[in-house]
Amino acid sequence: MPIPIVKKNMMSKEENGAKNMMNGRPTNKSTAQQKPSKLEVGIADDQAKDFDFAKTEMKYDSTGMFHWTPARSIEDCILDRNQAAMTVLNGHVVVCLFADPDSPLIGLRNLVMPLRASNFHYHELKHVVIVGAVDYIRREWKTLQNLPKISVLNGSPLSRADLRAVNVNLCDMCVILSAKVPSNDDPTLADKEAILASLNIKAMTFDDTIGVLNQSSNAPDAMSPLGSPIVLHRKGSVYGSNVPMITELVNDSNVQFLDQDDDDDPDTELYLTQPFACGTAFAVSVLDSLMSTTYFNQNALTLIRSLITGGATPELEIILAEGAGLRGGYSTPDTLSHRDRCRVGQISLSDGPLATFGEGRKYQDLFVASLRNYGMLCIGLYRLRDAALTTVDATSKRYVITNPPFDFGLLPTDQVFVFIHWNKRQSTSQ
What we know:
Elements: H1 2-19, E1 21-22, E2 25-26, H2 45-50, E3 60-61, E4 78-79, H3 81-87, E5 93-98, H4 109-112, E6 128-132, H5 134-140, E7 150-154, H6 160-165, E8 173-178, H7 192-202, E9 245-249, H8 274-277, E10 281-283, H9 285-296, H10 300-309, H11 314-321, E11 328-329, H12 333-336, E12 343-348, H13 363-374, E13 376-384, E14 398-402, E15 415-420, H14 425-429
Parallel strand pairs: 4-7, 5-6, 5-8, 6-7, 8-9, 9-10
Antiparallel strand pairs: 1-2, 3-11, 12-15, 13-14, 13-15
């Protein structure tokens, strides 16, 4: 009879229609063509063909401005003293942090994020080692867990054993911070621990052979606890006074205690003191100056972003302001284009493409040639304090000269701070 046949055909059409529904929406694929998929609900079929999410690794945040890694537990990043010593850290950044378990959060992410800017290649990122109370760092960890190359040593910045374990003499920079609430009794004691830590490092001496380990160990098991080969790239400082260091101060007047050989008058303003000019001291009051500068000159914000934050976008600022934190994103042409931005560099006049300008030439010659030939914008000089001295009393300290006069004379020992355009970096390094 024809009626059952029609009914059977209608049922088969309904079944096929139900099978041809994927994720609650119709598809133009037959049942035989549909394959199990691990794609999330809402991913269009045409997108799935062009983008393999399973094989794509997220290396940058959703805006493409910073390097990103999947969230890690703080326990996976904690080193004990022996592990830190076996790692033989070199060319890294040491953060000495004074904090009680209940101290207010100071935002360590704001310190580490510029060091993870995406305009650096991954191999150029400097390892950051935080030395301090792990109970406090655990409270900050939620904002740090997605930033790569971070380790934590549960110790004290005043302990010389901890400082030697993290190879403070081999670091590229040692940053001394305090999250403790200063006492109202005596403002001068607000920076007591930070100053003591600075003086303690300067008084240390180190074995001058630790920085010249043999690089011939190519055995597969010659690996550090962090997974990097135990190979050093440069010789460390023998004296703690030569360790690159910057100390944060709450009270400007306490800058007088940082340098024992400094003859500055105690009443000298901060920006005229030797530690500030040499970049070894930073005061909270400097932020007030930057804020007022930005208020009266909005174009200064672009320069400040490049110098301090490593760059930012309105989208990223909204994400951080809402407290969402860094989110991983897939590498698309749009996000990868955000890596193509200028960065700050330091060029020596003793060798390299700009060496000819160190022989008595003027700053204007250097400025014009750097911009015209290499696409680099000079913003200042980094000069030896005792450049004219050749005796043993000469120090290795340098100070910053921002935007020198056009007829300012140059020296072979000078270093130049420059903005390097993204498409000029390879030719400049060559």
